[in-house]
Structure formats: C-alpha cells, structure tokens
Amino acid sequence: MDTNHNKGDKSFKIPENWIEQSKQLKEKFSTLTDYDLKFEEGKEKEMLERIGNRLRKNREEVLRIIKEVNLS
Predict the structure, then answer these.
(1) pLDDT class for 14, splitting at 50, 70, 90?
(2) In 3-state terms, what secondary structure has residue 40?
(3) Cα 15 to Cα 21: distance, rounded to the nearest angstrom
(4) What are phi and psi for residue 56, nearest 5 degrees?
(5) What is the pLDDT, as a whole number, of residue 12?
(6) What is the DSSP letter of 58?
(7) Which residue, among 16, 17, 14, has the nearest Cα to 51 in the 3D structure?
(8) Distance of alpha carbon 21 from alpha carbon 5, whole angstroms
(9) Distance, first Cα to last Cα, the chain
C-alpha cells in the first residue's frame, strides 16, 4: 500500500520489518503492549495514536522514535 500524500509526515508507511521493529520498541519501552503495536493495513494512524497515548508522546515524537529504532 502506498499513499503518495506526503505532506509533512501525515503519510506513514509501516517498515517491511515491522515485526522485528515492534519487538525492539517493546524492549525499549516496556509499557507498550502487543495491542499497541498491532498493525492493520489502512489503520496506521490508529496504531500511531495508540503508541503515542501509551508513551505520552505526540505523533511527531512517535514517528521519530520509530525511525530511530528502524535505523539501529
């Protein structure tokens, strides 16, 4: 799925290695649950909101955290 509405960071594409990345996020942030990190195609926004709510971070901070984990 590719939505080319790349205005700022409104479009978020789940990395191909999301299962591995979600494991790393759970290791780094023990408060995250499997439900928080559950990916459903077309529901990326909802997942980012769950992560943000759990970590008490805004969308931009969540995207930065995911990007950092993806780069490590």
Answers:
(1) confident
(2) coil
(3) 8
(4) 60, 50
(5) 74
(6) -
(7) 14
(8) 24
(9) 24
Quote the tokens at residue 57.
């971070």
Query: Region 50-66: what's the mean pLDDT?
Result: 97
Please identify which residue in the block is written with the tokens 């205005």: 7
Q: At what angle do helices 44-55 and 59-71 cross, to 10 degrees?
A: 100
Q: What percent of the chain has pLDDT over 70?
A: 85
> Max Cα separation, the chain?
33
Answer yes or no: is pLDDT of 9 > 50: no
Report yes or no: 60 and 49 within 8 Å, Cβ to Cβ. no
**How long, in residues, is the chain?**
72
In sequence order, the 6+-apart residues with CB closer than 8 A to the CB of 44 are 12, 13, 14
